[in-house]
Structure formats: structure tokens, C-alpha cells
Design a protein that fits this description.
Radius of gyration: 18 Å
Strand order of the largest sheet: 2-1-7-6
Structural class: alpha+beta
Mean pLDDT: 85
Number of domains: 2
Number of strands: 7
CATH superfamily of the largest domain: N-utilization substance G protein NusG, insert domain
CATH topology of the largest domain: mini-chromosome maintenance (MCM) complex, domain 2
Order of helices and strands: HEEEEEEE
Shape: globular
Number of helices: 1
Helix content: 10-25%
Distance between the termini: 51 Å
Length: about 130
């Protein structure tokens, strides 16, 4: 008994190929652009960090010092420590390409990578209320 047709296989393969090609194009298009990290606390922008290469520091925001960020020398940033119960934010890894984001929902903190230039508060994003 056959559960799929030949056309089903063609459609699925074309979707997979399109997704892979789009992923590579997106990665290579945005990976070379200068970026900055925006840190939101309860949907309000509280800190902007330039992702300059050569700077390595660990910091937190004054609104919640239990959440610690790590800015790496290679121009990437991540959640280093958090007092949240599930630690999903810490497991999100390093980010440095425009469009990447991570959140620590129990603490109300969102980390978003945006273009360094030509970016405004009115651009569409994942933050509620925009």
C-alpha cells in the first residue's frame, strides 16, 4: 500500500530545496552587515550594545542583575547566566547575525540583533506592542 504519490514527493523536495537555498542566501546576505544588539526589558529598550570585534566583556542590565550577558571578541553575544528555572535563554547560544533573537521570558528580557544603521524603533519586530 502506497501512502504518497510521486507529485507529493516532488512538492516536498521542492519545499526542502527552496528552504535550504533561502537559508544560505539569508545567512550570507546578513552575515557581513555590521550589527548591534538591543536588549529589551518588559518591551522597553534598555541597552544597545555594538558588536565590535575585539571587545570581550561580561555585563548585566540594571533592571535585572541576575541575567548576565557575554559579549565575545568575535562580535557575538549570548546569555551567560540567568536565574530562570528552565535556562532556555542560556542554551540559545551565540548570536551575531541580523535577525537573530533570544528571550528569557521568566525575567522579561529579549535580546535582538539588528542592523547597526538604518534601523528605527518603528520597524516590525517580535516585541509586543510594536
Amino acid at each position: 500500500m502506497m501512502f504518497y504519490k510521486r507529485t507529493d514527493l516532488i512538492i516536498v523536495l521542492s519545499i526542502v530545496i527552496f528552504s535550504i537555498v533561502f537559508g544560505f542566501v539569508y545567512h550570507f546576505y546578513f552575515s557581513g552587515k555590521p550589527a548591534k544588539a538591543e536588549i529589551y526589558y518588559n518591551s522597553k529598550l534598555v541597552k544597545t550594545v555594538k558588536l565590535n570585534e575585539g571587545v570581550d566583556k561580561i555585563f548585566s542590565i540594571e533592571q535585572n542583575e541576575n541575567v548576565v550577558f557575554h559579549l565575545f571578541a568575535d562580535g557575538k553575544i549570548c546569555f551567560e547566566k540567568s536565574n530562570c528555572p528552565d535556562k532556555v535563554c542560556i542554551n540559545s547560544g551565540k548570536m551575531g547575525i541580523v535577525g537573530e533573537s533570544a528571550a528569557c521570558l521568566p525575567n522579561g528580557i529579549v535580546l535582538k540583533i539588528v542592523p547597526e544603521k538604518n534601523h528605527s524603533e518603528e520597524d516590525a519586530d517580535i516585541i509586543a506592542g510594536r
